[in-house]
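Provenance and format

Records in this collection were gathered into a single text stream. Each protein contributes a sequence line and a C-alpha cell line. The two records reproduced below are adjacent in the stream.
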Amino acid sequence: MLGIARLRLLAKVLGIKEVRQQYGKVRVSPIRVPKHQEVVLSMSYKNLLFKPEREYFQVVKVEASNIIPFMLSLFNDIMSALSSRDDVSTKAR
C-alpha cells in the first residue's frame, strides 16, 4: 500500500494524471520530457516506449509483481532528469 501511495505522490509531482495497466502494459500520461532525456531513459529502460506527439509513454513486458517497484524507479529517474534540466537552465541565466 505504501508503494502505491508513493507512486501516486510522484505522479502528482510530475503532473501525471493517468497510470493505467491493460493487457500487460502500463500507459502513463501526460508526460513531457526533453528529447535527450527520452533517449537516456529509453536506453536505461529497454521496455519503455515514448510517444511524445501524444504526450505519453508505455511500459511493456513488466510482470505484475514488479510493476510498482519498476514504476517507482522510473518516476524517480524522470524526476532526477527533470530537476537536473532545471538546474542547468537556472545556471545559464
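Adjacent record:
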Amino acid sequence: MSDKNHDKIRRDRIKSQHDLIELKKMQQGQLPIPQKPSEVVAESFKEKNENFWFYNKYKVLAIIIVAAILAITIRQCINKEKYDCTVVLSMKQYVSETAISAMEQQLELYCDDYDGNGEVNVMIIDCAYDADSYDQQLIMAKSTKYQVQFTSPESALFIIDQASFNSFDELMEGGLMDDSIGLPDCDGKALDLKGTALDQAVLEATGGNFISEDYYIVKRKIEGSAISNKKSVKEYNQQATEIITKMSQAYK
C-alpha cells in the first residue's frame, strides 16, 4: 500500500473517532445538537420590520423631516407666482380638504389680485393634525411643516384653534402676534372666526362637521424676527395687514 493511501486511511480513522466522540457528547447533553437547515425558523416579515424600525427609527424620522422640508420649499417655489396670499392653518385636530377649500374661497373675498394675473388665489398651508393620532410620522411631518413657515416671508397670516393660539401666545410671551392692528379679540391679537361668514361657509361645506370652539386668524409680528430683513417681507406683511383688516371690518 502506498504512503498516500496509508495517510488517507489514518486521517479518515481519526475523523471517524472524533465524530463518534462528539456524537456521544451530544447524546449526553454535553454539546448542543445542531439544527438541520429545514428546522431553522426564518424570521417573520413582522419581526424584520420591528427590528428594522428599532435600529433605524431615528434615521427614518430624519429622512422624513428633510423630505418634508424639501417638499414644502419646492412647492412654495413652484407655486409662488400662482397665489396672491398664503395662510397657515395650525390646529390640533384634523381639518378636511373640504373645510380648507371653503376657507380659501372666503379668504379670496378679502384679498386683492396682487400678482396682476386677473385672478385672486389664496392657498392655505395645511399644518393641522389630530393631537390624539397614533400616526407619529404624520404629526412629525406636520409639525416640521409648521416650523418651516416661520422662515417664509409669505406666511404672515395664521388660522389657529384655541390650543394653537395658547401655544402661539406663549412663544416669546406673546411677541409672535402682531397687536398693532387693533383686532377685536384677544387683546388686539386676533380676529375670532367663530360665527362669521367664513365659519358659516365651512359649516355648510362640511355638513356641520367642524369644530365647535373658537378659532382665530392672527398676523405674525415681523419686526425683530429672523425674516425681518428678507426680500419682499414688507410687501407680504402689508398685504397680510390689508386682508386681516378687511376681514375685521366686514365681520363687525
